[in-house]
Amino acid sequence: MKIIEICENCWWFYESASREYGINYVRGRLAEVYEDEDHGIILRGEDTILQKIFEIKVDLFVLSCGLEPRADSDKLTQLLRIQKSADGFFLEAHPKLRPVDTLTEGIFIAGVAQGPKDIPDTVAQAKGAASSAAVLMAKGEVEMEPFFAVVDPARCTACGMCVENCAYGAITLTEDRRFGTVAEVNQALCKGCGACAGNCRCSAIDIIGFTGEQLYTMITGRE
Question: Which end of the chain has fewer beta carbons closer than 10 Å to its terminal beta carbon, N or C?
Answer without folding.
Answer: N
